[in-house]
Fold each of these.
Amino acid sequence: MSFRAHLAALDVDALAALLSRRPDVLVEPAPRDIAELAGRLSGVDSLSRALMRMDHDEVVAARAVALLGAVPPATHAARLGSDESAVRAAMDRLCARGLAWKHDGRVGLPDRLAEHFAIGLSGFRPLEAIVRQTRVDDLRTAISGLGGDPAGLTKPRLAEALAMLLTDPAVVTRAVAALPVPARRHLDALVGDAGQPFLRAGAPAALLHAAGLLVGGPYQRPELPREVAVAVLMGERDRVTGRPDLPPSDDPVSDGRAGADAAVLAVTGLLDEAAQQPLARLKKGGIGSRERKRLVARLGLDDPALWIDVAAAAGLLALTPSGYVPSEGYPAWREEPVAARWATVARVWYALRHAPTSRETDDGEVPPPLPIQSAGGMLRRALLRAAAGGHSLRAAAERIDWFCPLHGYDLPGRERKSAAARHEAELLGAVVGD
């Protein structure tokens, strides 16, 4: 069943529930039919947003479906070495957001998502295609290398026997584990360079060929079958573990009112100052460190970059030839109740794509409120979702790789963005202590 057919088969309540989880596709003009809706849900922009909310188990499950194809969840669980109920739970979450669907007990992915998680495998041919151009002696060598017995088998039976061996994860895992280090390194390089399924001649290639992991292809060139590439990738991936059990925070409950009041006062004070004296603009754009230091000294602001970014994103700060000044909408916002003003500030901050207090790049700092490419916002939202409901924020930060596996940061970068998220949340009154 195609994704489009799956959507067409949903009842009204199920379709409404799916769209409530993917609200980015609910824009005018409304989709005219199921085909157009399927296109939106499978579009690059919508899938990119959905990927940002995937947890570790969902990523592992989606990758397994992309690598193994539409097989029952029990098969996925066996190949992943994971509990079947945990695998099914991860797949259910994917289905609930339109990132997968079930049909006849099997799970499928939208084509673009499958391509994303199986990137590179298109360069490997399946064994079925390779053996058509393989000599009988090469088939016997491969079967023997994998622990099978090729004696007395015709070429069709040899092909069937080799296919059974290469689709058995235990057999391939055993063969890979027995490789000497140079051969294993060459195998890893081959899997990592999927556009080149052939390996140059030499001792490592001969060892892989003797082990049955390379099969003689056209012109007797050893070729890595897709089945082996899948087995190697599956063998190196994480397991489905289930959501980490985060402990509750030991800190006393607080409503964060002091921080919230201070946040509204900081944004209001910044914009009132800009009304009196436009905030100086750098030639390259943005508000530089010298002007920000002036704001710290004059207004007593903590981290003025945060309030500049928030004010600009909320449409309250505008750029003019003389510098940054309050926008036309600022007076109306300033007259709103404090709670409404805080809600605007908090929602805008939560949705920012970057961390305002961590604007560093390889080329130096990008001054606020200039845009910056960053996964800091994705990590921030995952951290706060994980800790919501009284869980320890510190514990959530320690396990952030499960809640936000696609953030792309190394350990120091992840720690910087987590610390920035916590610091900013404290300044806004969204977080108090742990």
Note: The two ends are 47 Å apart (CA to CA).
Amino acid sequence: MTGLDGRPHALTAGDDQSVRVWDLATGEQTRHLTGHTDWVLSVAVTGLDGRPHAVTAGQDWSVRVWDLATGKRTRHLIGHTGRVNSVVVAQLGDRPHAVTVGDEGSVRVWDLTTGDRIRHLTGHTGRVLSVGVMELEGRPHAVTAGDDRSVRVWDLTTGEQTRHLTGHTSPVNSVAVTELEGRPHAVTADQDWSVRVWDLATGERIRHLIGHTSSVNSVAVTELEGRPHAVTAGDDWSVRVWDLTTGEQTRHLIGHTSSVNSVAVTELEGRPHAVTAGDDRSVRVWDLTTGACLTTYYLPAVARAVTLAADGTVVVGVGHDVVVLTLAPLARRLR
């Protein structure tokens, strides 16, 4: 999500090799960004030279930077030698940088102002599937995870691998970062049915959360009753909520009738909620305080990914299409 001309917009990408920009107030497509030559797998947004930009990555091994005000591509970042699975943006000094991970097992860091690749971080021995960024000891770090069953922590300023977190027994599908008791932590989700919590300052695994009965596909973090919680979703059709302080599963949200592919978290009327999307062609909204499913949206195809905006807008990837939903009426009902 981003703002253009003072209005909320959504960016979506897919297997039609394009990135599209949508005005969420009107539902109109305002930009159609073309140039990728294969599926676009990940999108991040940032400010660059005082203007909103998108950074996109995909199966054509490339990373591209777009000025969203004009729709023009301003950078074409080449260096990966395989599919680029995910991109996030981090601030190094006073300049925005992109961190990208790919099938060739590498992590690359790009200065978005110049287009230069400033870091090529190697150590993973398989596909890198997920990346998050956070501050650790006052410096920006990346946390990466993938097929080699490991989670690795990188100092983006020096390029050094500062942590190698082992313990997963299958590929790691998703990583999220959060603070727990004032210290940075990572939460990782695995195909071995488990969720693990890591203290990034020490490298220790402090929690091993067991309850899912199949691959865990997605993890998000939120605050619930003043404590950090993780929300996970997987192939066992369930969504589970975990108190990261105690390690206890506090909610088991049942309602999906097939694999749950994606979870995102938001606040409605001051309370934390989760929005989930699955193979059962539904998007469900859950009150994390009570565990109740407040509403279900049925879609024409499998719901692959869900993203949220603070204004109560949901953007769902559905096959080759994008469905835009609003949570505003639901929020009004909760008042």
Note: The first strand starts at residue 2 and ends at 4.
